[in-house]
Amino acid sequence: MIIQRLRAVVLIGLSTFTLWCPVAIAHHVLGRPSYGLNEDSNTPPSMQVETRIGDYFVNFMVFPAFPRPNEPGRVNLYAKRIDTGEPFQGDVVFRVRNDTWFGAEEQLLGVQRPDDNVYRQGFLFHEAGDFVITAEFQAAAESHVIEFPLRIGDPWPLGFIGIAAAAVLVLLAAVSILQRKRLLREKLRSTRSEARSS
């Protein structure tokens, strides 16, 4: 009886306390502050790479998460000095080439100036494939070059090397089958000739 009254008092006290608690207002979405949301908020990058090149720490991202042919995309690049943390303020040249053995020459995507310390370069590919984007900038009379792969859509999984390897495997299988048939015929002939002679 006393235990039941004690439980009732505790439950009434807890429910009264929870009614007086202030309401929590959401400030972050998935760990990001709500004031930092922009056009990329619902689209994670397909790739995010951080690297050191020379005296600079470089971070680049590719949007959207799954680039497709005939859909616009964008590369964001940040560069800052390692020693001072000062962002790079010069021009960055963006180029692209096919990531194949016999790929075409590099093509210029654009030359970008910083926009709020970010270099944004748009792209639009008409065909699926694997590409390499090159970003280059000059600092302290030195050239800094960053290359990173970019896959657009779902390219055919077999490239030139895959087709060549498949052709070699088919050729080897055909030669093996022909050799077996020839050996079987010779064995049958020798068996028949032995049967006739005896």
Describe the structure in your own words.
The chain has 198 residues and is of the alpha+beta class. It folds into two domains: 114 residues, Domain of unknown function DUF4426 (Immunoglobulin-like, Sandwich), CATH 2.60.40.3340; 41 residues. It is built from two helices and ten strands. It has a four-stranded antiparallel β-sheet with strand order 3-4-5-8, with no helix packed on it. The radius of gyration is 33 Å and the shape is flat.
Layout of helices and strands, plus pairs?
Blueprint: H1 2-20, E1 28-29, E2 32-33, E3 47-53, E4 56-63, E5 73-81, E6 92-98, E7 107-112, E8 119-123, E9 129-139, E10 142-152, H2 160-197
Antiparallel strand pairs: 1-2, 3-4, 4-5, 5-8, 6-7, 6-9, 9-10
Number of strands: 10
Q: Give helix and strand order, one letter per element, not per position.
A: HEEEEEEEEEEH
If helices are DSSP runs of H or I spanning 4 or more residues, what is the number of helices?
A: 2
Report the biggest beta sheet as strand number plus sense, adding barrel if it closes: 4 strands, antiparallel
According to CATH, what is the topology of the largest domain? Answer: Immunoglobulin-like
Give the averaged pLDDT, no decimals: 80
Radius of gyration: 33 Å
The CATH architecture name of the largest domain reads Sandwich
CATH superfamily of the largest domain: Domain of unknown function DUF4426
Percent helix, as a range, is 25-40%
Low-confidence stretches: none
How far is it from the N-terminal to the C-terminal residue, by CA? 111 Å
What is the name of the CATH class of the largest domain?
A: Mainly Beta
